[in-house]
Amino acid sequence: MVPSAVADDVFYALSNSTRRQVLEKLSVGPATVSELAAPFDMKLPSFVQHLSVLERSRLVTSTKQGRVRTYEIAPEPFAVAEDWLTARRRLWEARLDQFDEYVKSLKEKESEP
C-alpha cells in the first residue's frame, strides 16, 4: 500500500502542467532555475513556487553553488504514483476479467439447446 501523504504530495505536484513540463526538462539532466524558468511566461517568484512544490514532493532535489540553484530529478517518488496506478489497474483488470467470464457464461447458456 502506498503511504497516503506521500502519494498526495506526488499527485499534487504532478497535477500541474508547468510542474510536469519542468519534470520533463529535468529528465534530460540537471538545470538551473533560470534555465527551467526560461520557457515559461511567468514571474520568477511564481515559477519558484512550482519548484518548491516539486521539492516538497521529493520529485526533485536542488543544490546551491554561490547564487545559482540547480535542480535535478529524483526518480524514487515516481514509484509511489506508479504503485498506486498499478494497484488501480490490477483491480479494474480483475473486474473486467470477471465481467468477461460472466458474459461468456451467458453466451454459453444461450447457445445450449
UniProtKB/TrEMBL annotation:
CDD domains assigned to the protein according to its UniProt record, in alphabetical order: HTH_ARSR
PROSITE patterns assigned: HTH_ARSR_2 (PS50987)
Pfam families for this protein: HTH_20 (PF12840)
InterPro entries reported in the protein's UniProt record: ArsR-like_HTH (IPR011991), HTH_ArsR_DNA-bd_dom (IPR001845), WH-like_DNA-bd_sf (IPR036388), WH_DNA-bd_sf (IPR036390)
Any one GO molecular function term: DNA-binding transcription factor activity
Record-linked Gene3D superfamilies: Winged helix-like DNA-binding domain superfamily/Winged helix DNA-binding domain
HTH arsR-type domain sequence ranges: 1-95
Keywords on record: DNA-binding
Record PANTHER family: SLL0088 PROTEIN, TRANSCRIPTIONAL REGULATORY PROTEIN
Protein name per its UniProtKB record: DNA-binding transcriptional ArsR family regulator
Source species of the chain: Longimicrobium terrae
Species classification: Bacteria, Pseudomonadati, Gemmatimonadota, Longimicrobiia, Longimicrobiales
